[in-house]
Amino acid sequence: MLDVCLLGTGGMMPLPGRWLTSLLVRHNGRMILIESGEGTQIQLKMAQWGFRAIDAILFTHYHADHIAGLPGLLLTIGNSGKEEPLTLMGPPGLKRIVEGLTVIAPALPYELSLLELSDTEPTETCLSNLNIKSLPVDHTLPCLSYSIELKRLGRFNVEQAMNLRIPMNYWNSLQHGLAITLEEKTISPEMVLGELRKGIKISYCTDTRPTEDLVRFIQNSDLFICEGMYGDEDDYGKAVKNKHMMFSEAGSLAKRGHVTELWLTHYSPSVRDPEEYIEIVRTTFGNSSAGKDLCTKSFKFQD
């Protein structure tokens, strides 16, 4: 199972009733956070998922509304009793940014592991049993979109395991993708597992113009969380100039990417009621929602 919580949905500045956009993903009790703008720890507290189990914080880019809340959050995570390392990931410049921000959070009871990702090529890494991919996108400074995927192994072939004379006490390891050694011979999971089955994929994208690479990147996502900075089509010129996205453009990406569900987020402060524009999106992609702070959903493997 994979749980997601859209902690906040605002862009540029926190507003009464709308905190800055941030996403929390949980699997097997461990968590990954995307973005840490001003006040993110307040929404984390309201979500009641805890702080200590956060294994990584991912940043799309280094505008203040996406990272300025980091020092306070790091201190709160430390006060939660965390001692194991915390991974921070983002585009180039992460080390310099973190060094500057942690001047006011100098003594943490855990190590910070910094991973700078390419702003020219897609990357892929694995953390907390989740596959994390990044894609450079088109903003006013280096910026990344992310996908988080929980992969699913193929079905265990009992007949094949019996043919290979593998004792049953080894089956569980193979089912979980671990190789075993039997009579000095290595048995790999691929020898007893079928083809990979559909997993669970969540994609997250803010602060960019639509791109063809993005269409491919979000392909077949179970949930696509995408920026809707402007709803009124009269603001299109502003979106192009500032390299942000319209509600309608998010809907077009969702349709072309064959995603299952779309949540909009990262609204301009000028968008007082996102629901006012959601039908514009639904004319292109029906299963669309105007994301709300603390919106949550759980995803299970499909049979």
Please render the helix and strand layout as text.
Layout (H helix, E strand, L loop, with lengths): L1 E7 L13 E6 L2 E5 L5 H8 L6 E5 L5 H4 L2 H10 L6 E5 L3 H8 L10 E5 L6 E5 L2 E7 L7 E9 L5 H6 L7 H5 L4 E3 L2 E3 L9 E9 L6 H6 L5 E5 L8 H7 L4 H10 L5 E4 L12 H5 L5 E3 L4 E5 L4
Parallel strand pairs: 3-4, 4-5, 5-6, 12-13, 13-14, 14-15
Antiparallel strand pairs: 1-2, 1-16, 2-3, 7-8, 8-9, 9-12, 10-11
| CATH architecture label name of the largest domain | 4-Layer Sandwich
Name of the CATH homologous superfamily of the largest domain: Ribonuclease Z/Hydroxyacylglutathione hydrolase-like
Strand content: 25-35%
**Strand order, largest beta sheet:** 6-5-4-3-2-1-16
Number of strands: 16
Number of domains: 2
Percent range of helical residues = 10-25%
CATH fold descriptor of the largest domain: Metallo-beta-lactamase, Chain A
Q: Output the helix-strand order.
A: EEEHEHHEHEEEEHHEEEHEHHEHEE
Number of helices: 10
Poorly predicted residue ranges: none
Estimate the global geometry from the Cα principal axes. globular
CATH class category name of the largest domain: Alpha Beta
Q: Taking Cα atoms only, what radius of gyration do you get, to the nearest Å?
A: 21 Å
Alpha-beta classification:
alpha/beta
* Largest β-sheet summary: 7 strands, mixed
Quote the average pLDDT.
95
- Kindly, what is the distance between the CA atoms of the first and last residues, rounded to a whole number of angstroms? 13 Å
